[in-house]
Amino acid sequence: MKNQNFVNRLGFAISGLKLAVRSEKSIRFQMLAAVAAFLLLLIFRPEPIWWAIIIVMVVMVLAAELFNTALEILCDFVQPDHHEAIKQIKDVAAGAVLVVSIGSVLVGLFFLGQLLF
To answer: Which of 34, 39, 58, 75 has the fewest CB atoms within 10 Å, measured from its CB?
Structure first.
């Protein structure tokens, strides 16, 4: 469906987000964590640089989760039965989400540490 107008492409993106949220517990958890991060920003009202850093980290985690979900759907479509290579692809994609999530937690710890010290 190449060369669709903006409204159609936006609709496809929103459909993808809805599908991911409905089907993936991990995305729902990450969205809950994002809400918590934004609540902390609203409560503590840090300098704008912290808003930017935390928003970037939240977006990176959610984007990684969405890419992981898309890759899992593709892998399951291409190879519905267990296959070692498909398992490895899924594991590596999950590892990418883990790396970004750990980075996000570290940023959160630095943020909280700055508030406390």
So the answer is: 39
25: its two tokens: 């517990």
85 CB-contact burial (10 Å; exposed 0-12 / middle 13-18 / buried 19+): exposed
Taking the chain (117 residues) in runs of 10, the rounded mean pLDDT of each run is 88 96 95 95 95 97 97 96 96 98 96 89
Give the integer Cα–Cα distance in Å for 72 and 40. 32
pTM of the model: 0.90
3-state secondary structure string across 21-36: HHHCHHHHHHHHHHHH
Distance from C-alpha of 104 to C-alpha of 112, rounded to nearest angstrom: 12
* Helical H segments across the chain, by residue range: 6-23, 25-44, 48-78, 84-116
Domain boundary assignment for the chain: 25-116
